[in-house]
Known about the structure:
It holds the Pfam family EF-hand_1. By secondary structure, the protein is mainly α. The chain is built from 8 helices and 2 strands; from the N terminus they run αααααβααβα.
Amino acid sequence: MAGKFSEEDLASFRTVFNSIDTDGNQLLDRDEFQKFADEVGSADSFPTDLIFLLFDENNDGKLSFDEFVTFLTVGSGSGDFSPFFERLFKKLDKDNNGTLDVDELVDFIKLCKVPVDPAVVKQELVKSNKKDLTLPEFLELLNSI
Length: 145
Ligand SMILES: [Ca+2]
Ligand SMILES: [Ca+2]
């Protein structure tokens, strides 16, 4: 991923990263990232919880510099979201059965902070007799949002 950037780009990313990493441990925890998101005003469109689900590749609850660069790449629209959605799907699929059930999906909707009432989604899914979503169905849903 990082190979796409020039030395200059990376240096400026590093500066941003360091300014967010207030305790200087080379990792961004949720609090540090949240402060950054609030400052740039992205917290509404990109909730921190969602960012961490998508880009915390090694699941340590923190963003490393590489993970942060991936976030910038994809977040700027120049990357492909699909692999990240697949990872998201796996993380949301808490019982690991390969599908997302209604509750897992509702958790995700809450996380996205989209102006959708989870109760309504739940109702819709139950009505359409869809108890769970496979990965392709999930991707289709995301693309339709
Ligand atoms: Ca830190
Ligand atoms: Ca991480």
